[in-house]
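Weekly sync, protein design subgroup
Attendees: M.S., D.O., the rotation student, P.L. (late)

Item 1: inverse folding check
M.S. brought a backbone from last month's batch and wanted to see whether the design step gives back something sensible before we order anything. D.O. pointed out we never logged the input encoding, so this time it goes straight into the notes. Structure tokens as presented (505 positions):
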């Protein structure tokens, strides 16, 4: 009986000691780091700057290939077209590290605290993808970094045991997800032990932090002025194009611009490099409820651009490279395959969703009139429902051209009068319908043969449609603003009905 009592008392004593130990560690992060160091004791770990995210620590690396929406790093060498050469300038996240002794770490633990822990904060994975790609431990560090940056706290002890490499991933994830933290710089410093455990993180801030309240007011005012221009716009495509066009109009590329890695430089100062364009575009679309991500990579030099989610698809947007003279849509709402020869993602950006080609799985000649449910994500470029380089399937030859055309018209369920056989006929019809419908949100349709598609596609992607029918129609309507989206219906017989969704004012 006495033996049982001793055993019970012993177990109770162990439980109490364990609880006291947990409480002490919670109140003393320095002790937690020391314990972690002892657990990981072994051969010394010399810290080396991170070169690759291929096996990134603390990152939930996707295990499947491109068919499931995972980015595939292009194999071809990236080349930079002459008209955008030099329009780069992003500064990748850098770290300044220092190894310290256990005694120095003990002294630090008596001076430093965790600062803001960010406990209770949550982030939507759709809008904050870098947070979503972290494991549970790094999510704690991410929240701590975010919360301390909000309060302009500089140095703090990590709330969880992490290596410097892991800490860098967390700091970089916060920086990439939050353009509103425009005072946070793309660098930090860290102190670590011989074992690699990080015992101090120090954030760096730019000049905006010197008078942050005033800087926030200016930033908010400039952003709200731009966002007010989207009032009355009903869909994401219109809003996205408006923000794109506005930044191209108001921002000047300038490598010497102050704070040029921030959204502040673009929105308030009107001068920036690719990082500022990209973070401004990200911030403004976030405010409009459109998921938009900061993407870093290589395009001749270190470069930054955006990935935007439109409906269920993702698209690349490089506002900086569209800001040429004259401005273009050459790098607007493109797939990864269209970017492969010029842009390659690096670092954490390789884990962002893939921007895949949109291709219909339905056979060409179904005999039905079901709509291909893809709205063109680029108002200046018609939808491609067949892959690049693939020709539109033509019906088998009949005994003569006239019989073949009649057969195809019957298959499509249309009349001869409905078909616009040439680009000139298409322009004339669009101009008449546009003027007839007037201003505001309007829709109209017309029918073209498959062989006209490539010519029409080129006209929209090169902007020739403006001279083709838009300029004259706007002049007659006394309007100045025009945005178009196309929806495509496969009719059969090699014919296609184009649905024009247009806003004019």
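Designed sequence read out in the meeting:
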């Amino acid at each position: 009986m006495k033996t049982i009592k001793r055993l019970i008392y012993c177990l109770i004593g162990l439980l109490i000691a364990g609880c006291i130990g947990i409480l002490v560690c919670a109140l003393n992060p320095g002790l937690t780091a020391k314990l972690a160091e002892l657990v990981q004791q072994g051969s010394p770990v010399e810290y080396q700057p991170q070169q690759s995210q291929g096996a990134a620590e603390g990152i939930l690396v996707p295990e499947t290939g491109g068919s499931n929406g995972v980015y595939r790093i292009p194999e071809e060498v990236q080349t930079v077209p002459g008209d955008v050469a030099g329009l780069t300038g992003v500064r990748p996240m850098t770290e300044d590290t220092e190894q310290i002794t256990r005694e120095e770490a003990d002294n630090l633990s008596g001076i430093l605290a965790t600062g803001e822990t960010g406990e209770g904060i949550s982030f939507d994975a759709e809008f904050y993808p870098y947070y979503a790609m972290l494991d549970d431990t790094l999510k704690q560090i991410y929240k701590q970094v975010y919360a301390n940056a909000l309060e302009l706290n500089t140095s703090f002890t990590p709330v969880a045991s992490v290596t410097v490499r892991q800490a860098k991933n967390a700091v970089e994830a916060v920086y990439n997800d939050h353009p509103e933290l425009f005072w946070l710089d793309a660098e930090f410093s860290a102190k670590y032990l011989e074992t690699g455990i990080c015992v101090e993180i120090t954030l760096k801030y730019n000049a905006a932090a010197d008078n942050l309240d005033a800087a926030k007011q200016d930033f908010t005012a400039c952003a709200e002025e731009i966002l007010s221009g989207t009032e009355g716009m009903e869909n994401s495509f219109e809003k996205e194009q408006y923000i794109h066009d506005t930044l191209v109009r108001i921002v000047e590329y300038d490598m010497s611009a102050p704070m040029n890695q921030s959204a502040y430089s673009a929105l308030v100062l009107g001068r920036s490099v690719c990082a500022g364009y990209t973070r401004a575009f990200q911030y403004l679309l976030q405010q409009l409820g459109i998921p938009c991500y900061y993407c870093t990579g290589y395009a001749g030099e270190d470069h930054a651009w955006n990935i935007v989610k439109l409906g269920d698809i993702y698209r690349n947007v490089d506002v900086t490279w569209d800001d040429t003279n004259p401005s273009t849509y050459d790098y607007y709402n493109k797939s990864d395959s269209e970017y492969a020869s010029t842009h390659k993602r690096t670092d954490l950006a390789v884990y962002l969703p893939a921007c895949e080609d949109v291709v219909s799985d339905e056979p060409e000649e179904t005999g039905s009139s079901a709509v291909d449910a893809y709205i063109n994500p680029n108002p200046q470029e018609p939808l491609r429902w067949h892959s690049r380089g693939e020709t539109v399937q033509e019906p088998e030859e009949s005994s003569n051209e006239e019989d073949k055309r009649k057969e195809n018209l019957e298959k499509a369920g249309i009349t001869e009068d409905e078909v616009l056989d040439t680009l000139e006929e298409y322009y004339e019809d669009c101009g008449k319908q546009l003027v007839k419908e007037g201003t505001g949100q309007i829709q109209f349709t017309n029918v073209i043969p498959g062989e006209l598609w490539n010519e029409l596609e080129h006209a929209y992607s090169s902007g020739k449609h403006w001279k083709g029918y838009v300029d004259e129609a706007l002049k007659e309507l006394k309007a100045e603003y025009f945005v178009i989206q196309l929806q495509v219906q496969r009719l059969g017989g090699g014919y296609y009905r184009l649905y024009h969704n247009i806003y004019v004012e």
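Discussion: The mean pLDDT is 82. The chain is about 40% helix and 15% strand.
Action: P.L. to compare against the previous round before Friday.
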